[in-house]
Write a structure and sequence with these properties.
Distance between the termini: 55 Å
Oligomer: single chain
Order of helices and strands: HHEEEHHEHH
Low-confidence stretches: none
CATH topology: Endonuclease, Chain A
């Protein structure tokens, strides 16, 4: 059965319904990589953080406000991972290049503001959680112990 998807004019209409369905299912919070990292943190008894804390620039995915630690869990596709280098979409290239550029600028600006305000910022990539879960949790532990 064909489903009509709401169009807000920000993105071009995909050529295939399957692409439209996939893109419509993307969400901003509680993504699979975020949940995977939180499961790993809980497994190491690392608790006491806030999710998408709105009082910090960029609403870090995980924040330890008292320690001023902000953790961003970046999806490889949306934030253009420097490690796994995901492929670019084949259609609407101009739109996607602009979108990815805006994402990178926004991420950089949020990091700058956080650091200027005394926060330590850690960016964790989706592929790092999948490939190196222990090492990834170790990075968080190291940051928490440094305070």
């Amino acid at each position: 059965m064909k489903k009509d998807y709401y169009r807000d004019g920000r993105a071009p209409v995909p050529l295939k319904e399957s692409i439209s369905r996939a893109m419509s299912s993307n969400k901003a919070r509680n993504t699979k990589p975020e949940i995977a990292l939180r499961v790993l943190l809980w497994g190491e008894c690392i608790k006491g953080y806030r999710l998408n804390w709105k009082n910090a620039p960029g609403k870090p995915d995980i924040a330890f406000p008292g320690r001023k630690i902000a953790i961003f869990v970046n999806g490889c596709f949306w934030h253009r991972c420097p490690y796994c280098k995901p492929s670019l979409p084949k259609t609407h290239k101009r739109f996607w290049n602009q979108k990815f550029t805006r994402n990178a600028i926004r991420d950089k600006e949020n990091n700058i503001v956080l650091r200027k305000n005394g926060w330590k910022v850690l960016t964790i990539w989706e592929c790092q959680i999948e490939k190196y879960p222990n090492k990834t949790v170790g990075r968080v532990k190291k940051l928490l112990l440094a305070k």
